[in-house]
Amino acid sequence: MTDEMFHVKPDLAASAHVNAQRHGLMTNHALNEPDSFWLEQARRLDWFRMPTLAGGGGFEGEVRLSWFSDGTLNASVNCLDRHLPENGDRIALIWQGEAEDDVRHVSFRALHAEVCRLANVLKGLGVRRGDRVATYLPMVVEGVVAMLACARIGAVHVVMFAGFSAAGVANRLRDSGAVLLLTADEGRRGGKRIALKALADEALAILETEGGSPVRQVLVVPVIGTPVPMRAGRDLDYARLVGEAEPDCAPEEMGAEDPLLILYTSGSTGAPKGLLHTTGGYLLWASLTQEIVFDHRPGDVFWCTADLGWVTGHSYVVYGPLSNGGTSLLFEGTPSWPEPGRWWRVIDKHRVRGFYTAPTAIRSLMREPSSVLAASSRDSLRVLGSVGEPINPEAWLWFHEEVGGGRCPLVDSWWQTETGGIMIAPLPGAVAQKPGSATLPLPGVCPVLVGHDGTVLEGATQGEAEGRLCIARSWPGQARTVWGDHARYVQTYFSTYPGLYFSGDGARRDSDGYYWITGRVDDVVNVSGHRIGSAEVEAAIGSHEAVAESAVIGVPHAVKGQSLMAFVILRGGGGGEAGPALEAGIARHVGHMLGRYAVPDRVLLVPDLPKTRSGKIMRRILRKVATGEHEQLGDVSTLADPTVVDALVARLGQ
Ligand code: PRX
Asked: Which class is domain 528-653?
């Protein structure tokens, strides 16, 4: 079944931006004359000064990448101003609130005015080019306004997911050195409230007790209208200040390599890293990929369900669709609240054409009674997209056949925070799909598979192989550094396989050259499309007073893809009568330290952990034990004490 081919209907193929012939031409052009190819692509943006240098750079040594370095531009001009002369009244954002009647249609002209007003407020508060501005907001229009207002004045935005805990927010504020924070009185989620201002206060208090917070001001958006305590001299009312500000603000002329944004993401070691994306290359990549992967036209309604706090929200709610003159839908709610079928109703109500979501959502929606889906028509849909984790063929087929009625191409798109935008995906009209495969690289993307010893398996694009997914050449959307720690950037991505960018994923390539992503090969766990480093959760668990040591692994989960399981050794051993209460307390503690999204489904107190003789935890063995495969442990010659495994098996059986 997985090799079944789905050819795109001719009507779409005929009108698609990229047909098979053009795909081939683009790919060859990018391969043979990369400079001329990238400079041609750069013309899709509006520049103050058009670049004459493409650039890139090698993956050896210090890895100093740079694209279009003599060009200057402004990202907000590309998302707003350039649409005003002819399409100022076109809707840029449709905001659908959690309540059915809460809807806002914001035209490009109105969005431009609000962005300029906030940009003026930020300037008035002393925010300068290069300063970092953080946001901790729910899915509201102001979240987009804040990003574009930063871009307008050359400030670097640091968007934080509203599901992060106060400690998680404090870590990101400290690391980025943000001078200003935008938050809301409260957020809404699935009928509940999230006390964002109170959490922000708690985060700032953590920084103050440490001896100083970089944050000088807090702008509070009145999303709900709940009265919240405001600290004089620090906290300011967004609505009042923005309401009084001028609706015009000249854009800063930014160098292509000036920073646009920092976004934190988890890796296999340590605290989350702040990936830095720069203005020209990132914007080009978001814009190009959104157009060609989703066959997007100006004015199309595009709905990417990701939160603004993740890279998918950055590239495919904001920068991609808006730079392309599209209408982006911003939904505050959740898929099945207040009742099942909410997403399908949103699609019908707002005539969504491109719909981009995650396998975990698809798997949970396909469990609902078929009458739920049948109650909507979804006849506006033309292109479906999937991202964030491998999509199993069952979910792929349900999405394609049932949701899309078999008439919409389904683009399974592989990429990462580090890549800025989509890297491997079928272009509608150009590449035939196979359920479960992200298919072929986009023009200009050079994936390679690498064996354990670092050898590249059978050439760059051809031949069946399975290995670790690396990229051999730089592309414009590539993150340029880890904020404040370039050595970590080089170490994390370029030291494993010298000369290559290592993604952390494994993949298989079939005889058609199609890529099948198999998932992370490092200690990163993908829970419902959220990327969580085991080391980060272990550090959170380790900060609980009762804990001596822990190991966190991902185990397969039918809906979430993977779920987290934590094995914990207490100080002084045992758990005794208090065991279950302590396990629950440790789980709560993780929620407090990181946020609910990172709370393990299972916390298990254990007497010991499987370790090598040099003391390294063998997570591979924990994974086998957790999935009931303890009879097939493989090579255990390095295991210091084999009896540990029996104790774990017994504990899991309880
Ligand atoms: O493991 C891959 C998985 O998500 C990781 C990147 O996570 P993040 O930086 O949070 O970005 C998520 C949205 C791009 C990758 O290393 N991943 C992403 N897309 C796919 C995927 N795994 C399989 N198939 C995909 N289409």
From this structure: alpha beta
